Amino acid sequence: MANLLLVDDDPDLLKLLSMRLTAAGHHVISAESAEAALTQLAVARPQLVVSDVRLPGRDGLSLFDEIRARHPTLPVILLTAHGTIPDAVEATARGVFSYLTKPFDGKALLDKVNQALALPAPVLHSPAGDEHWRAAIVSRSNSMADVLAEARMVAASDASVLITGESGSGKELLAQAIHRASPRAAKPFVAVNCSAIPEALLESELFGHVKGSFTGALDHHRGLFVAADGGTLFLDEIGDMPPALQVKLLRVLQERSVRPVGASQPVPVDVRILSATHRDLDSAMADGQFREDLYYRLNVVSLRLPTLGERREDIPLLANHFLARLSAKYGKRLNGFAPDAMKALTTASWPGNVRQLHNVVEQVCALTTTPLIALALVQRALRVPAVEVLSYAQARERFERDYLVGLLKLTDGNAADAARLAERNRTEFYRLLQKHGLTAGQFRTEPPVAD
Predict the structure, then answer these.
(1) 71 CB neighbour count, 10 Å cutoff
(2) What confidence tens digit (pLDDT) does each residue in 334-350 have?
(3) Per residue in 354-405, pLDDT tens?
(4) Which of 44, 204, 274, 408 is an S-S bond match for 175, by CB 3.0 to 4.6 Å?
C-alpha cells in the first residue's frame, strides 16, 4: 500500500479518483488546492502526488515547481485538459513523471501510478524489517525524511557522497546508514577523522607503510584504504585535510590503488568513499585551501543534514530515546521529563545539535533523584539560569525569613540583640520567629570544650 496525495478542485472528480485509488489498495489523502496540498506535504510525506493542472489560485504547475524544489525525489503526475497539454509537455521536460489527458479511464491512471511507484526511489514508510539500515537515526521530521530518502536512493550506487552539516548533527550516523543500505553492507565500514590525526601520521594511517620506511615503523601497516577494501571508507572533516595529502588522495581516487609509505608498488583497492565536513568547501576552494578537482571527485552527490533547530519536532523523540538508553546505563528507573522541562528542551537553541542534546540528557539522568526529570535540572544542564517568578506575598515572606536568619547568624543566636537590630520589641520578634519556624537556639555557636 502506498500513500498518495490527490489534488483537484472538482469535489466529484476528487471523490471518484480517491475511490478508484483506494480500491486499488492505496491510502489517499485529498486536497482541493495547491495551498492545501503543501499543508498536507508538511504534515506527512506521500510517495506520489497526482494533481490537476487547473487549480484555483496557485495552479498545478506552480505546485509542481514547489514540490520539486522541496522534495526532488517525489514523483508527480499531472492531470490536464486538452487546452493545457503544451504546459504539461513542458512540465514533463522539467521533471514531471507523467501526465494524463482528461477524460481518462481508471486503468490508465492506475498504470501511471504503478509505474511511478516502481521507480527506484525509497519508500518512506517501508516495512519494519526494511528499516534496519537507518535504525540508529531517530527522527519523524519531514526534513530528515527527505535526506533519508535521498540517502537510500544513492546507497544503491557506488557514487561518492559528501555529507555537510553542523558539528554534532549526525554526519557519521548518516554515513553508516548509507553503508548498511548499500551492496557493500557485508564489507567493512571504516571511519577516520581527518582533523584528529597529525599531518605527519595521516598519510601512513590512510595509505599504510612498510617496515623501516621511517623512524618508528617497526612493522608493516596496511592503512585504512586497504582495511576498507570492498566496503566503505568514511573521511570525516575532509575540509581539514592538509593540501599535500589532498593531492595524494585525488590520485588514489583516480587510480583506485594506494602506495604505502616506503613501498615501490601500488596496492589495488575497491573502496566506496563517503566524506563529511562542517566547513564551507566552496569558500575553502576560493581561498585555495581545498582542491577543486578533489571536491568534484568527492561531491558526486551532496546531502545536507538539517540542524536540530530545523527539526525541532524530533527533540522530544530524541530526548526520550536517549533517556531510555541512559537510564539503563545509570541503573535508574526514569519515567520521562516534566512538561516544563520538555518545553525547555524543545525551545533551546542547540548550537551543538544532537550531540549536545545527548550530553544534556546524560547530565540530567546522572543527577536526578526523582523518576520525572525536573525543569531545574534541564536548565542547569543547558546552563540557563532558572527564572522563578514569585507573587508579592511569596517574595515578602522569603525576604522576611532570610532577613531573620541573617540577623540571628550575625548575633550568634541572641534574640534580644537581633530584635534590637531589627528595631522590634522582643515579643513581636519572637512572633516572627515562630511564624517562620525558627528558634534562636539554632544559631548559637557551641562553646569550645575545655581540655
Answers:
(1) 19
(2) 999 999 999 999 999 99
(3) 999 999 999 999 999 999 999 989 999 998 765 556 788 888 998 999 999 9
(4) 274
Alpha-carbon distance 108 to 113, whole Å? 9
pTM: 0.68
140's enclosing H/E stretch is none
- The whole-number pLDDT of residue 125 equals 41
DSSP secondary structure letter of residue 406: H
- Cell numbers for 145, please give them: 525524511
CA 268 to chain centre: 36
**434 contacts: CB under 8 Å, gap ≥ 6:** none
In the three-class reduction of DSSP (H, G, I as helix; E, B as strand; rest coil), residue 248 is classed as helix
C-alpha cell at 57: 489560485
Q: How far apart are CA 277 and CA 325, in angstroms?
A: 28
**pLDDT tens figures, 13-38:** 899 999 999 999 999 999 999 988 88
Residue 289 to residues 91, 250, 254, 280, 294: CA-CA distances in angstroms? 41, 15, 20, 11, 12
Characterize the bridge pairing of strands 76-80 and 27-31: unpaired
